[in-house]
Design a protein that fits this description.
Elements lengths: L1 E3 L2 E9 L3 E8 L9 E2 L1 E4 L6 H13 L6 E12 L4 E11 L12 E7 L1 H7 L3 H15 L8 E3 L2
Parallel strand pairs: 1-7, 2-7
Antiparallel strand pairs: 2-3, 2-5, 3-4, 3-8, 6-7, 6-9
Helix pairs in contact: 2-3
Length: 152
């Protein structure tokens, strides 16, 4: 069995009278149609994971990002059709309140949501766990989790 690490997961937040998370709804023609998710994507050959995260955010949302953190969580899943386990690093980025989201063809709509609404739209337990860790970091001043900020 292979272990693969070619994907990334990026959660985008903004501060708008509280914290809101950007969720994207997959297009009907994509794999996992109509599923709500964060930004996801593939790491290109010789590309760093955090660089792929920033590129995918730009491609899927057209947002410019100035801050990125490593979330202390690795999402994972098993693909039985190709017999491999995928390990997915998780990132957090902050969006400027004044930027306009322009989604790619991979998605049919987007929504800025508070934690409770966002977590209820995720289908996968690993994505929910990532958002719980992120929200704990952002909301609680004395969070047990310390995120590493990447200089870009």
């Amino acid at each position: 069995m292979l272990i693969d690490a070619k994907l990334i997961e990026v959660h985008i937040y903004r501060e708008n009278c509280g914290i809101e998370y950007l969720l994207l709804k997959r297009s009907p023609s994509e794999i996992y149609p109509l599923l709500w998710q964060m930004v996801t994507g593939k790491i290109k050959h010789d590309e760093k994971a955090h660089t792929a995260a920033l590129r995918e955010v730009k491609e899927e949302t057209n947002l410019d990002i100035s801050d990125i953190w490593v979330v202390p969580n690795i999402n994972s899943f098993y693909d039985w059709t190709k017999e491999y386990i995928s390990l997915v690093p998780v990132f957090l980025v902050k969006a400027d309140m004044n930027q306009e989201v322009k989604i790619s063809d991979e998605h049919s709509e987007f929504a800025w949501l508070r934690f409770e609404d966002a977590i209820n739209r995720f289908a996968w337990p690993g994505q929910k766990k990532s958002l719980e860790i992120i929200d704990d970091f952002l909301v609680k001043e004395a969070s047990a989790f310390q995120f590493n900020k990447i200089k870009i």
